[in-house]
Amino acid sequence: MDTQIKTPETKSFEADVARLLHMMVHSVYSDRDVFLRELISNAADACEKLRYEALAQPELAGEAFQPRITLHADKDAKRLVVEDNGIGMTREDMTEALGTIARSGTRAFMERVEAAKAGESAQLVGQFGVGFYSAFMVADRVEVFTRKAGGNEAWHWASDGKGSYEIGEAQPGDAPERGTRVVLHLMDDATSYAERWTLERLVKEQSGHVPVPISLVEKPGEEAKEIADGTALWTKSKSDVKPEEYADFYRGVSGQYDEPALTVHYRAEGRHEYSTLAFVPGSPPFDLFDQDRHGRMKLYVRRVFITDEAELLPRYLRFVRGIVDSADLPLNLSREMIQESPLLGAIRKGVTNRVLGDLGKLAENDPAAYAKVWGNFGTVLKEGIYEDFERREQLLKLARFRTTRSGEDLRSLADYIADMKEGQKAIFFMTGDSRSRLEASPQLEGFSARDVEVLLLTEPIDSFWVLNAPEFEGKPFKSVTQSGADLADIARDNKAADASAETTPEVEAFLAFIKNTLGDAVADVRASDRLTESAVCLVAPENGPDRQFERLLSAAGRLDTASKPILEINTGHARIAELARLGGADEELKADIAHLLYDEARVLDGDKPADPRAFSSRLARVIARGLPAA
Questions:
Q1: 131 in a known ligand binding site
Q2: CA–CA separation, 399 and 322 (whole Å)
Q3: What is the CATH number of domain 401-625?
Q4: The Histidine kinase/HSP90-like ATPase domain covers which part of the protein (predicted)?
């Protein structure tokens, strides 16, 4: 697009523009891709301005005005053109808009609209006046050809962004009939921005929902192909959107090919106006357990993409995909500055509450569908129980568990409380690395005998959230591996035989002997009211950490000193009764038995014997004593 400029005039940028341009290119924007967003935003503004002006002067736009933005790509010539058929500019407009940083024709136009108290709502963006200069991140020379609506003169502006610009009359044919044409002469390392797939991707990600259709001419001479239709799905009423439209949008915004399990679509009005279109995926995203745990919600301002790093949802909802489009947030100098906006905090709170509320409705109205959601994302939602004090009760209501009663089904805490036994004061749980091992644990025997339901928690996060969730609906959480389980207050099942027995003096003496023999290895040795079949088990002190939580901390190297366990003895067990009758005979045998009982409890608890070599020697001696004499 060669041009001969009539009577060009060279002017210096105001405000030491060379320094400001350098700062803007290297500091204000976090990546080069934003230049296209900014130029398309400016073009959309120009079209919106013409639409508004044409309300009073219809001749400016003509009867059949159809706003449009067209991208012309020419990789061979290393050139990209962004053209609109909007309001256009005069020479004075160009000097004002393109010669001074931090001043904006858009801002001036908004002031005019406000002053006139217009009833029309013009959708305008780019109020900070620096977006255009982002073009110099990818171009070593930028030209602008423009013709004001209703005018005959066309103007040309050109600069390399290094301190000055040229402005003069454009050659006939170089400027559009009305509107603005921005020509970027791309740097050698930026020629990919003249490729079809790059432009389509950027438009789809960043500007596919501006209120003006966008077309692409892939090569000079080819016909334009529409790549964005100028409508935004989230601006439509829910009743006007088909399920397949939601599904297509979901796949585009999430990069997945499944069906969404839940769609959240609403518009908030009042103090803050914003639209939300969010999806809970039908299957776990590949990055669900990414260490960075970043969210994947996109932030738009008046249908212009700003960032996908605004953390619009807490990290425990990072599996949710979608967009939030604000009518109140400014298009600020940088994406990073938006993070500090109090408006964003209010939006984040509103969107989070809505997503959790809709998950609650799904759980109530379609338990089977919600069970799949919990199966996919329950582990991540539990992080919220641990982290989000404000919404802990709400998240606990959403939580689902397998229990000693549930089989393969899932149970809510509300279900659990409704079925609590008479005299039961706590929600009992047990943590471990597998359900089968938990169900075989001797620590559950007393609960099974009383038909007391126990939550079976098999994920590492379970050992953490139960510490931060002291109670639910007035019922405290209590580990079955801790002492003081209050089982004595709960009557046994009528069908279960009472395996307890009175503690005889012989048994009391035997327990005292075991405690004295084990010494510092245990905190206490006492009769158990939880064992019905097994002889022994280990439990944690009442105020100590859960046994599984302590193991996790120890494995992670975050526990200097482990708490001493309590060894509980089933005084009604036949083997214990026989051992107690040994009396004072053979102290060595009784000492070996005391240590073997402790090691048996450790093995049942999922640990190794305290001293494997000593365990082997003691076991060999006991076996030898039981063999007939040669």
A1: yes
A2: 23
A3: 3.40.50.11260
A4: 31-190
